Amino acid sequence: MSFLPLSRRVALSLGLSSLALPILAVPALAAAPAPAAAPAPLSRLVAAVDIPYEQFTLKNGLRVIVHTDRKAPVVAVSVWYHVGSRFEPKGKTGFAHLFEHLMFYGSENADGPFFGRLEDIGATDWNGTTWFDRTNYFETVPTGALDRALFLESDRMGHLLGAVTQAKLDTQRGVVQNEKRMGENEPYGLVEYAQLAALLPEGHPYRHSTIGSMADLNAASLADVQNWFKTHYGPNNAVLVLAGDIDVPAARAKVEKWFGNIPAGPAPRDVDASVPTLDKDVEKLMHDNVAATRLYRNWIVPGVNSADLPQLDLAMAVFGGLKSSRLDNILVRQEKVAVGVKASIQPFEKLSIAEITVDVKPGQDAVAVGKRLDQLLADYLARGPAADEVQRAATQQLSGTIAGLEKVGGFSGKAVTLAEGAVYSNDPGKYKKDLALYAAATPQSVGDAARKWLGRPVFRLTVAPGERSAEDNALAGNVTHHPAYFRDPGKPAPVAATPPPRTKVAEPPIEPVKDLDFPDVEQAKLKNGIPVVFARRATVPVVRVSVSFDAGNAADDKARLGTAALTTALLDEGTKTRSSVQIAEEQERLGASIGASNGMDATNIGLYALKPNLDASLGLLADIIRNPAFAPAEVERLRGQLLTRIAAEKTEPMAIAQRLLPPLLYGGAHPYGIPFTGSGTESGVKAVTRADLAAFHDRWMRPDNATIFVTGDTSLAEIMPLLEKRFGDWKAPAVPRGTKLFRMDRMMRPARIVLVDKPQSPQSMILAGLLTNKQGTNNPVTLLTANEVLGGSSTSRLIMDLRESKGWAYSAGSMLPGVKETIPLLVYAPVQTDKTGASIAAARKDIADFLTTKGTTEAERNQTINSQILSLPGSFETSSDLMAAMMRNRLLGRPDDFYEKLPGLYRAMTAADLDKAAREAIDPDRLIWVVVGDAKLVRPQLDAVGLPVEMGTLAD
């Protein structure tokens, strides 16, 4: 199971990715350790976290929680139903999640895809998720669209069944099964099944995965759908949170109007779950197509309402979660036997799962590393953490909580925080009690919790490189990957009840929504000429700073690809006066986070800082940027980690395609003709020297190639002296500044299919591309808008065909990455193996039709334009949103008020304009298709597509 840390949420994305490697180094020999900064006390951080709320309950039992936040004209709507996969009876695994999908496909008064209706009203941060204990649906909408959003949520809460059909059930069953295949197709993709089976006894409600088994998904019937809805989806089993531009009187009137007439469902019945302890240690060895052996240590520990959980979370952070953790310092930095370590808690309502992982350095003895890990854990449990370790871990936890509360909605905002407390703990303010426990933690309390829960028998799992076994595949409920029946043909079909008569509820209009008022952008220069771009966002007491250099992966050394990646990875691993451990510890004490990354066109070193600790945090940032040590021992450490990362990419379907496609599109000489993953090549990383790294830094990371961006709770007058203090005396080195040569060769690159064999793949990854005739600096807004119709939105042609109509893919679409020079069109679709060839044929037809006989319809134009305009106010809610927008404007040469002018540009676009832009820029006959899948199953299908097929490899 890919467990998320207790205080973190993650999001996955596709595109020209920045490199973000968990790379650590040997401590540098510090010339003169910098004096420790005095951080703000934890009590001050706790006081900064406050979400005032009021709540009321309708007569039908719907609990409503309201938080007012007027910073932007948007409202987060979050509906949590207290039902998840642990409520599923035997033989119905995966049903809670399957039902969540059905909730997005129309209700009695709003039939059709729910997400299309959300896009119509400019919703942002919308999604639905299912986990063991709950199912939630959420969206952030413009204030004027709140009634429409509440109508939609109430209609699927109270009036769903009349719109659920067998065809919808069958389609979503296929979509969910492809989602399952997609997860299992990743390295370590079967681990979750093994963990749950080993840690929990037969019959335990948490023992089966939320995604379920293929057999149970096939058996789901309309009768199951109706019973699940009637049993679990009543208003008395739900919590509705409204957070943002709303107050209690308005909320009460609106909620009563839309939800008040929905009858209560049956009284909710909880499904209890004990916290089991293994009788003895359990060990298991699995094999998978992985680059590095991974060691797991897992325990079942108490749920979110245990006072022990925050203490245990801190214990895990100290041992393997912090950058300065025990495991990082010993296994990675000192003994050099691991390339990555983690320790975290995945919290649930009734129980949680503690996990430690160690990625063994290739060439090391995994058994010996495992014994060393167990020895270190035993020593840690015996001695406990130090006071400074606990303080740093608690500060990081509080800092991360503050960062998450800048948003009203989404995965980690205020609405989620209040809803989670209400559903799991019957207390929307539970977060405050948890933070108080973190702040009050001591070495004794943390050590006691660790000994109590981690001193019990452990599940030791090792995943080593090799072929997956039939036994391991069977754990997932996938004994074979042959096409499955929708139901067992040997059994009679379940009989569904007659749907209730449809209700008649009118859809409310959208009230006027003001166009985006983008925050004022101010500009200044430091005395050495570095431009400073600033915008204020004072919602929470944090400041973000990004020092951006005109470099990026496009500046990489063609003879030594990976130089850029290795340089940025080394920046925070030692300076002339600080070791890598000192840098990590100082960030943790300050509650700061510093990260360096390469996009395609820029290298960015970003700082997240708590306002009270801003000056000291800037001092650390400046030292990292200006004075990297590039210590030889650290260079070798990081080289090994980067090589392991490249090897790992060669096992990941999307990463394989992202490595192979760019040179096929651009040619090897073009700055963009490199792996889109940003990690370079094996030969390049092996060849780079310390002198190369220092030279790259001198040519590209210098004051005359930099721009500093600042957003957050400060002012230009306040920040400028602090920036002058840290960067104003920085002088450019004598060597010339780096330059990039963007020039296309004259080579013909004909359309074809390149197949990469990945045996045992349960799914095929398709990534196709071509070069448009547009550059990012052309500001091709009309082309980007046309792509929303083709493949950029959740109701686009590609996803509606491959996912919603055919059910062959969990996701599909197209994108135009925001690069500065020649923009590629990328088309992607992870599809079920037996539909690989048919999916390419279908996608080619969809694209060709869109560019010829079936261009943009007036309805598609209107929905796309409305969505783009109405979503703008919710797109710049946080300081990080503003930062990204300011940096995009600067990169592409756009004015500071670009986003304020966008509504006017959108309104002027016609359907014909969209078609013209797409047809001028995109030649579908030039698409090159990369397919990563099981060649023996896929090749015969591809031969029938009508394009030349060749085998591809990833030698470098």
What's the pLDDT, averaged over the residues?
91
> Biggest sheet, in brief?
6 strands, mixed
Radius of gyration over alpha carbons?
27 Å
Shape: globular
* Strand line-up in the sheet with most strands: 1-2-8-3-7-6
C-alpha end-to-end distance = 30 Å
- The number of helical runs is 33
Q: How many strands in all?
A: 25
Which percent range fits the helix content? 25-40%
Taken as a percent bin, the fraction of beta residues is 15-25%
Class by SSE composition = alpha+beta
Note poorly predicted spans. Answer: 1-34, 478-497
Explain this structure.
This protein is of the alpha+beta class. The protein has 33 helices and 25 strands. Strands 1-2-8-3-7-6 form a 6-stranded mixed β-sheet, sandwiched between helices. The chain has a 6-stranded mixed β-sheet with strand order 14-15-19-16-18-17, with helices on both faces. It has a 6-stranded mixed β-sheet with strand order 22-23-21-24-20-25, sandwiched between helices. α18 (563-570) packs across α24. The longest helix is centred in the first third of the chain and has 19 residues, at 166-184.
